Structure to design on (648 residues):
């Protein structure tokens, strides 16, 4: 069983057609799992629905507490890409003995050209087989939490070092 | 580096708007990798473009030979779902020491509601981290080649074998 | 008010993921009208759900009878493209004083690359403003029922007949 | 022949995946006409690429001048919905003897759930058959320029004026 925690980010943004802006509604996770014909046993819980640029230490403690309380040892967290690495560090400092994979998207799932479905398939798969630790799964790759950074110019996650 | 071999299947079917039928054209793999913003180093090669119900032992030997000749030890094979298990067995009997992951789709990628992108993200991720062996990656899960069957009534891959 | 009669055709084909074939289910018309944010007052009624190559004279008489019985003078009929012209002729011979527009699609609506939504917007608009008569609306154009043919090689409807 | 002038609006917004914002790039018009398998003879020209809330009188004079100079008597203008009615009034005051249809979208075409393709099919069709005048085509309907307003709460265009 895998515990999926939703925190918002580009992944889950939708278009508000009255205001003409990007906004948050309900998570698309259940619809995406259905589309992927996923048979992975999961529980999906929305912790918050925010842009990761607005994520504070308090928000991060909510995520750490949820991952800590979760009875399963395998966890996926959906998250905005801008501060995904910071949250990964908070999780690594706060939790031991669990496989936690953070993922997100560069383009909202509700957009035709989103990488969200690809990333979700990737993150679930990594969560099923990687040993305990905190990882980021983006661009079809996985990185240990302290060996990665987001390249803000290309939008790509890349190896970064100690 | 991961070697991707394309063999056809529902995954790659397209709609022929003159004849009104499902058919094969070029593989959608490169487009799908672009959509997934994949940064996994891959080589993509189309071995055949056929419905897996039409796959013969000769076709399977072409796939085994290609996987055998491939210089990389990590391989993804896209394949029709109906006889994916048979091809997995042929690969397991013919090849040692490589991680080979077969995947496909229940709905063509070109259709709006396809599981293809999810499955591709999943298969690439399993191929990156699983130990040598032959696996099937479908429905967000992975199975050893001799521990799986396709349930023809539900379309779902499930555990089987002793 | 516009009466919409559904008869099937490529427009409404869906993918049967268990059998791997194109088939018919419920019509996509209500979903398409919602997507188009249509505020046109319509009633939608499914007369049949068939490939237009299988359409017989009896089927055509059902369509003529429905259009004749319909209390509105403006009608849209969705129809397979292969014999759309024959049904248009049957309607022209059987009905006077109503504006009837036939439309369809070259690619199923459920496919990502369908012309269905464009054609529906076009057919409804022509039905609202054209004088009584029987027309075919395809490729953004409209044709009188006796001045059109489908080019089977290109899939395009073009002027024909003097 | 129909002259299509592009001015921007929600219709043509795209998602900037580096900045995470909605923005303008190239117009999607040619791709949309291809998707609709349109065979209407058109010329497409981008006059500006702006949010209609930012449209000034000077911008409107550019549109009036382009429609006036255009050798064809049938014209479609894509436009943001917020001030579409104001631009329609400017066109009605500046031009006689041409059929001009303004249209737009509530959701960007690049989003999966856009009304753009439906609206484009509708606007082209109205432009082909309506008598000279300035019209707005939205929600599958058409309105004379001085008989319409956008309802800001529902996003719907509705009859207005005496």
């Amino acid at each position: 069983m895998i515990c999926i925690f939703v925190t918002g980010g580009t992944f889950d943004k939708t278009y508000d057609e009255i205001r003409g802006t990007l906004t948050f509604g309900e998570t698309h996770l259940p619809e995406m799992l259905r589309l992927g014909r996923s048979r992975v046993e999961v529980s999906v819980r929305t912790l918050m629905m925010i842009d990761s640029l607005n994520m504070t230490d308090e928000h991060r403690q909510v995520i750490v507490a949820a991952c800590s309380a979760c009875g399963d040892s395998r966890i996926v967290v959906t998250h905005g890409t801008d501060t995904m690495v910071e949250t990964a560090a908070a999780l690594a400092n706060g939790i031991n003995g669990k496989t936690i994979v953070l993922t997100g998207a560069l383009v909202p799932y509700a957009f035709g050209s989103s990488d969200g479905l690809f990333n979700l398939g990737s993150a679930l798969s990594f969560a099923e087989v990687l040993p305990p630790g905190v990882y980021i799964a983006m661009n079809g790759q996985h990185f240990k939490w302290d060996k990665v950074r987001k390249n803000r110019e290309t939008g790509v996650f890349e190896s970064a070092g100690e």
User: Anything to note?
Assistant: Chain B has a mean pLDDT of 96.
